[in-house]
Amino acid sequence: MSDPRNPNIYNRTTPQWGLMQRELFWAPNEGRHPPLNTDPDKLKELAKERLTEGGWYAVLCSSCNAGQSWTHYANRLAFYRHQVIPRTLVDTNHRDTATSIFGHRVSAPIGFAPIGINRIYHPTGELAPARVARDLNLLYCLSSAGSYSIEDTAAANGSGPRFFQLYWSPDDNVAISMLERAHRSGYTACILTTDTWQLGWSHDDVAVGNYAFYHEHGSGDLGLLDPAFLEQLKESRLDPVNDRQKVGAKWIDENIWHGYSHSWERLPWLMEQWKHISRGKPFILKGIQSVADARKAVEMGVDGIVVSNHAGRQVDGAIASLDALEKIVDAVGDQTYIMFDSGIRGAADVFKALALGAKFVFIGRLWVWGLGAAGEEGVRHVVKGLLAEFDIMMNVAGYPKIRDINRDAIDSLPRGTYFPGTPDLT
Question: Which of 27, 105, 294, 303 has CB atoms 3.0–4.6 Å from 328's, for a disulfide?
Answer without folding.
Answer: 294
